[in-house]
User: Fold these one by one.
Assistant:
Number 1:
Amino acid sequence: MLELKIQIDEAVKVICSHWSRRPMAGIVLGTGLGDLANHIRQEVAIDFTEIPHFPRATALGHKGRLICGELAGVPVVTMEGRFHLYEGYSAQQVTLPVRVMGALGIQKLFLSNASGGLNPQFRSGDVVVIDDHVNLMWRNPLVGINDEQLGPRFPDMCQPFDRKMNEIALEIARQNDFVVHRGVYVGVIGPNYETRAECRFLRRLGDVVGMSTVPEVIVAAHAGIRVMALSTVTNLCLPDQVKSTSGEEVIAIAAEVEPKLRAIVTGVLQQMATTA
């Protein structure tokens, strides 16, 4: 981890040469949820390829740009796409953008993802506010010699998702009259979808399953950044009702749900602006 500080500083220098504002929040747009970027009052857009040490985004539907501007009156830096372990990147590469956003000054991090529904009460198109997670990726971005400039050797993970932000999200859903669940996210490496036997196993551990988010949350906890993560159930992992899943179907369903996630994120940001 000792080389990370240099990489972070080099990335920050390039971003700040394009955009000099200090963001209050960072947003990571997951699969099918990139339309939120169109609602940001965009001031600067930087391709990931222009930022030192950022990998290339190869996942389906991920544009690979850093959008800097304002959303709900709050300065934000937004990843239009993210990196995954299944793309062949290390856990430290996947999470470098979170560290860079932290160095830019964010106080809160909003994560979104598409997931498979494990809880039999969930339906395709439901939104889940993630309460906790289980790491079955068998990777951890904190492995290696710790750099105390970035965070403590043994960060606490008893509450990786911010309780207050989650409560605000649930209240916004009630006010807008749409269903939002609380749930536990199980992170797996992918890229294949789960077998029936794996679905039976995973249902004992959590409510939704996906291939991202967990490494980013670990690094945010390490850096002292408050996190809210929203998951869109795009397919159901029901071992006794087998149905094939495709990436295109996942993106289509996630895109339909995007207005709900946008309402939550903008609502929480508005409260941030009010209390700042």
Number 2:
Amino acid sequence: MNWGSWKDFLAMGGYALYVWGAYLVSLGALCAEIVVLRKRRRDALGTVTRYHARNAEHSHETAP
């Protein structure tokens, strides 16, 4: 499409609500995905750290 001005571009030929709404929903989903992935990574690293700490304690207790 060829727009004559920024106003025409932002109006998207009368479909601005749908076009920009779709971009907004997609951006929101991507941001939510990043937040959830960071939380899951932090939780997984904590689990691994606790696992290794527990195993280190047990190996010291059973050592002669």
Number 3:
Amino acid sequence: MSDIQITKINPYFSVITEYISDFPSVAIGVFFQHGSRNETAEMNGISHLIEHMLFKGTKNKTAKDIAYISESAGAVIDGFTTREISGIYCRCLASEFDKMLDLMSEIISLPLFDPNGLEKEKQVIAQEIAESLDDPQEQVFTLLFEALFQNHPLSFSSVGKVDTINKLTHDVIADYYFRKFLPSKVCISAAGNIGHLKLVDKLQLKSHQILASNPIPIIRPNIDTERTTIIQTRCNLTQLYAAAASPTFSYRDEERYGMIVLNNIWGGAMSSRLFQRLREQEGLAYSIFSFVDFYSDIGILGAYFVSDVKNQEKIYRCGYEETIKLQKDGITQEEFDNAINSCKGMLTLSSEDSMSRMIRNAKNDLLLNRCVSTEESILKFEQLSIDKVNALTVALPGEYSVANVGPIDQLDYLKQSGGPQKVIVKD
């Protein structure tokens, strides 16, 4: 059983621990409800740049000092930026916990944002962006969010754009960090061999360093935006990378559990309808899967494939046939039972990792304002009925947006697909 405890230091600052007695290590992170969707178009990428710069030195320590202290403690320390959450985290031996907590507190409260280091890190991020642009799978999902959400901040890439990042100065970054990023809703989450009161006592002494007080309000996207296709012609590729999706339930909606099960049956597993039809029976694609992605106020449900351009028309037709059949005839009892067990199994396997537990607890606190234990989530799946999941098939993509990357042009797309007629061509 989970032993999750929560203390609210203030309404926007939570401390969560999940005690696991037989783990010799502790995973701990400091997470902010702040990501690329909190940015403006002119500032896109600043959250990601801040995350990088937090590790490049404090008022008392250099970047090398931070690396040395972490490695000498046998710890792994890193950070991430997504559309809604940013943070830094580490995993260390329980005996080194105090040292690493002190280091992370200093990283968060006393960042230097050194101008010299800033210019170098911009070059590093430019390489990271170039690498993602070269990867057609990453690029097709970047374009899919642009097609779905268009000018809304959810369409922004979490890594940012080179031209906007290059304009950010030390003063702009420091001001943004202390006035907007740091005051966001904050969660400090730990999982492993750590007592709750010990962590809370240490953080009470440091709580003045975290100014969680005034989260930036988020703007809900307009789900009535015209469905759109974005095409990026890349003649150097031999395969077409394609993704299509439409809006669905948010992370805060209890219907998400049923949608996870439906996604597993539709195309999210090897035994799924889309995988079996398009890969196993027709041999049209090596990579084919459906996906569901949840955010605080909206979600997306869609499918992705990689195949020869000449297969596009047949893939869309077969995918449409399987989707309509699923909606018309519903799922079978065998499919339902297998999907429930699959979802429970994936959840249980991920809970064996203290890092996964720590991040899961933080995400739930930031987006739901409460923790959801593994046991509670498993119970949610067990309480689902086949009728409940069948009722959700109406949410399978009908009016969807599309992104295509590969040796295809607008005319090819219009001839072979039944997707949105509004087409945007990207360089």
